[in-house]
Design brief:
single chain, 355 residues, alpha/beta, 6-stranded mixed β-sheet, binds adenosine-5'-diphosphate, binds magnesium ion
């Protein structure tokens, strides 16, 4: 078997009493794209920060290309060349132009001559679609643009591996796509990457392997298919099947429809389903004002399962034992939705529209 780029052995990290990483073991090989998923507070960032010694581990060892970087006195500037990092909050230098942000480290640490560094930086900026902005300062860029520059900056050091810590979490939802597509492109180019992300669909599509982290350990490790379709542990299953919800209790006729409209908008933006926004809005309007006008109180629930991509609108009337929908309502709704499910529950009656 070829040598691993990263090998982590019995890695542990404590902050005082708090044991954040417990006995973490894994290997990463050339060209692997590993997404690290898991609840917040489980040590994902700490693990990445340990891998480039921003947060030195308290026990265990890390080897990069066979060299023990946790050894006493291992030169950190060597490590920084091998392991690049892209942060949630970009961390660009605000007093330098985009181009200078990228050429700075290669010139200082790799001693690349200025002209060559500039040439390389321009070609990297082209790769991330930012060549036009070479001479502006970061303050003039959107979040998505800043993050693409930060990626180019990491690439400029020709690292063996790049670590991404939630690269899209600080972005306005409209900008998530442009950053993910740059990372997808890098994945195809064979660059070795470890990506902490909450974007399940992205992780599923882009990764060769997934680590599910939970309570300071790599709880489950497998191909996207194993982790997302056949998870072994119940904690993994619960995490990946997570469903996002938006809920409104509507008890009288003078409910705040503007608030619901805004809520649907934001929900669709947040979970990247803006394509379903107009349909969701018009269905809610039609249901509340026409088909279910006389049914109060009712609970409106919009749900979105991130992994399957299934979006639904639930209208639940408590204490009702039959469908609130007339034949006309059925006729109007059916052609607009993927599926219409009516079900009696222990609490009442529910109409579910799958979008
Ligand atoms: P994740 O990235 O999975 O959300 P983190 O690695 O950021 O988790 O944090 C894991 C735990 O370690 C959290 O409880 C956090 O509060 C704690 N922690 C992280 N960094 C520090 C630090 N520098 N000092 C003390 N506690 C920390
Ligand atoms: Mg984190």
């Amino acid at each position: 078997m070829e040598q691993s780029i990263i090998r982590v052995s019995h890695l542990g990290k404590r902050f005082g009493e708090l044991e954040v990483l417990r006995n973490v073991d894994f290997e990463v090989h050339q060209g692997e794209v590993i997404s690290i998923i898991g609840p917040s507070g489980t040590g994902k960032s700490t693990l990445l920060r340990a891998l480039n010694m921003l947060e030195p581990p308290t026990s265990g060892d890390i080897f990069v290309n066979g060299e023990q970087i946790t050894a006493k006195g291992y030169p950190l500037h060597l490590l920084r060349r091998k392991v690049g990092m892209v942060f949630q909050s970009f961390n660009l230098f605000d007093h330098m132009t985009v181009l200078e942000n990228i050429t700075d480290a290669p010139m200082k640490l790799l001693r690349i001559p200025q002209e060559q560094a500039k040439e390389e930086a321009m070609s990297l900026l082209k790769e991330v679609g930012m060549a036009q902005k070479a001479d502006v300062y970061p303050s003039a860029l959107s979040g998505g643009q800043k993050q693409r520059v930060a990626i180019a900056r990491a690439l400029a050091m020709h690292p063996e591996v790049i670590l991404f810590d939630e690269p899209t979490s600080a972005l306005d939802p409209t900008m998530v796509g442009e950053v993910l597509s740059v990372i997808r492109q890098l994945a195809k180019s064979g660059l070795t990457m470890l990506i902490v992300t909450h974007e399940m669909r992205f992780a599923h599509d882009v990764s060769t392997r997934i680590f599910f982290m939970n309570e300071g350990i790599v709880y489950e490790d497998g191909t996207p298919e194993q982790i997302f379709e056949h998870p072994v542990h119940s904690a993994t299953k619960a995490f990946i099947q997570r469903i996002q919800k938006l809920v409104y209790e509507i008890d009288s006729d003078d409910f705040d429809f503007l608030q619901i409209h805004t809520g649907i908008n934001q929900f669709c933006l947040k979970y990247n389903i803006t394509g379903k926004k107009d349909l969701a809005y018009s269905l809610v309007k039609e249901m509340l004002f026409t088909h279910m006008r006389t049914f109060r109180p009712l609970t409106l629930r919009m749900t979105h399962a991130e992994l399957s991509g299934l979006t639904a609108l639930d209208f639940m009337v408590e204490g009702l034992d039959h469908s609130p929908l007339t034949d006309d309502a059925h006729e109007s709704l059916r052609p607009q939705v993927e599926n219409l499910i009516e079900e009696s529950t222990t609490r009442g009656f529910r109409v579910k529209l799958i979008l």
